[in-house]
Amino acid sequence: MKTYKKAAKLPVIGLTLLLAGCKLTQPVEQSKRIDAPKTFAGQTDSTGIGNMQWRTFFQDQKLVALIDTALKNNLDLKMAVQRIEMSRSNILAAQGALLPSISGDVSGGGRKFGDYTMDGVGNYDTNFSENLNTDRRLPGPFMPDYFVGLRSAWEIDIWGKLKNQKKAAYTRFLASEKARQAIVTGLIAQVATSYYELLALDTELRIIQRNIALQQSAVETVKIQKEGGRANELGVQQLTAQLLNTQSLEFDVRQKIIASENSLNTLIGHFPEEIVRDTTLVQVLPDVVQAGIPSQMLKRRPDIQQAQLDLQANYADQQAAQLAFLPSLNITAFLGFNAFKSSLLFSPGSMAYSALGGLTAPLVNRKALKGNQKRAEAASLEALYAYNKSVLTAFQEVSTSLKKLENTKRINEFKQQEVATLRLAVTTSKDLFSTGYATYLEIIAAQRSVLDAELNLTNVRKEQLLALIELYRSLGGGWE
């Protein structure tokens, strides 16, 4: 009767496990991602600068050569490649979990059973059996045990838990490749930014040197006029002080050039050396910059693609953590030679094999599984928020760069007019000073103003180029 009752319970237990399995194997409901705008600042042209290859986008061949060197030597990029290899190894580990493991086993040991135990009495009594020949008699109270053969263990993925773990590992491998691409886009933008900042410093140095020459001429002029009684020592001192201040600016800019060159050398993987560069800003700014459409940016930008893949990987982890509550089907087996005498180990009668399969399910104290499930749920939500943030950040960067290009273009027009006007003012002040209609203070003010205006104009032109580079990077341009 008891046997009948136990047999009757088996279908009930099986049905319970089946119903639980049907519920837990349903896909986890994933939260909604952010809805992105359809256009950038009203632009509808699908042809954006992000589609351009960086060799075409950058027109300075010396800059192109520097970028090529950086892509070969940059240490951050090399570290990213190794992270890809680590992710690839995780795929191999996940693939291995789906297959049976087979290991070779050569082992030996022994045991002394107590005289007043079932094993001790049984072994002692067995040796008196007439059915045992000499080879089968037990060696004594200390029982050796030798084994040479193969052992195997295999968890059959009946619910898809291991398959989800493999999917998570593969998706993270793809995400690591996107991370490398993001480093490439950032590296190209960094090299170009440092290069144009260096060219802007070269321009500032030439402006300062030109103004030093003008101020030296003004000092010589006022000295001559002092000798002729048309100026005094105060004028000489103030013009000389202005000259000394401008000369100090020259060395300040020279130090900035050294620092900028060293920073650029670090990016390209070189020790400090002079950077070969053009003498002018070669990059031509287009009249109208097209950003394309957001859908292209979302597909092209590596950090967004990486965030999306991380989201998918965490979703697979969450699914696997849920399926861990279901029973697992495990099969263990061994095949080999087993004997209590080393001399008989490889005899035909020592051949031994075994196979065992069974379902195991966590029933009591499942806190570890619940904790892992909660962690996977939180990680999945975090990945969702990270993806949404990356999309918001991308739109913010594109919008800021577009507006900066537009505004710096207007600023550049005004600054050009300001510089032209102030250069005329310097010439006029010198002529008036020579004829006695202007003071040395007016010359000082005019020269200081034109120096500041020329430096500001150089800075505006640099900011225009940097905004264009930043727009190119924020649109996902730069990796091939």
UniProtKB/TrEMBL annotation:
Q: Under the GO molecular function aspect, what terms does this record hold?
A: efflux transmembrane transporter activity
UniProt entry tagged with the keyword Transmembrane:
yes
Known PROSITE patterns for this protein? Answer: PROKAR_LIPOPROTEIN
Record's subcellular location: Cell membrane
InterPro entries in the cross-refs: MdtP/NodT-like, OMP_efflux
Print the keywords alphabetically. Answer: Lipoprotein, Membrane, Palmitate, Transmembrane, Transmembrane beta strand
Q: What is its main location?
A: membrane
**What superkingdom does the record give?**
Bacteria
The name this protein goes by in its record: TolC family protein
Provide the family line. Answer: Belongs to the outer membrane factor (OMF) (TC 1.B.17) family.
| Bilayer topology | Lipid-anchor
To which species is this protein native? Dyadobacter luticola
A GO cellular-component term linked to this record: plasma membrane
